[in-house]
Design goal:
It is a single chain. The protein is an alpha/beta fold. It is built from six helices and five strands, in the order αβαβαααβββα. The chain has one domain: CinA-like (Maf protein, Alpha-Beta Complex). It has a five-stranded mixed β-sheet with strand order 2-1-3-4-5, with helices on both faces. Helix 2 links the parallel strand 1 and strand 2.
């Protein structure tokens, strides 16, 4: 693992330990890369609970409880689906913090409304604090997946730092 990913994972682990929180992740287009990066960090068993690789719609429904109607209405690559993936990961784990990633890494699969490089994210900080966003990343499949990984972990770090500032 390269230095940037290693440092990001170590920082995330330290933040989760400060919050006394466990992380779970639900990944689609990154195919388990989040779980691989965080578990490459020594001591991650103290802050990483489990990961779900839910590449197909069936796996999103079966493993995370993403409703069929939501997938039909919004598609697998949508903030609505990312939010359902994140909340489903929390519901099917012992973690307190979740992140989810779903997107189109390419080279095919894009459409005018959702071009290649479209990635949707969601972060849950407990059962009631969920946020999501969509980003468009340039590059080939590897570049899109790496950018999504970094954005997901960095986004979680920002949310953990923000939560720390609001703690008494």
């Amino acid at each position: 693992m390269d230095e940037e990913l290693s440092q990001l994972s170590e920082s995330l682990g330290a933040a989760l330990l400060r919050h006394r929180s466990l992380l779970t992740c639900a990944e689609s287009c990154t195919g388990g890369w989040v779980a691989a990066v965080v578990t490459a960090t020594a001591g991650s068993s103290n802050w990483f609970e489990r990961g779900f690789v839910t590449y197909s719609d069936d796996s999103k429904r079966e493993m995370l409880g993403v409703p069929s109607a939501l997938l039909s209405a919004h598609g697998a690559v949508s903030e609505e689906t990312a939010r359902a993936m994140a909340t489903g990961a929390l519901a099917h784990s012992h973690a307190q913090v979740a992140l989810a990633i779903t997107g189109i890494a390419g080279p095919g699969g894009g459409s005018p409304g959702k071009p290649v490089g479209t990635v949707c994210f969601s972060w849950c900080m407990g059962a009631t604090d969920t946020s999501s966003e969509t980003r468009l990343f340039p590059g080939d499949r590897e570049a899109v997946r790496r950018a999504a990984l970094i954005h997901a972990l960095s986004g979680l770090m920002l949310r953990l730092e923000g939560a720390a500032k609001t703690m008494p």
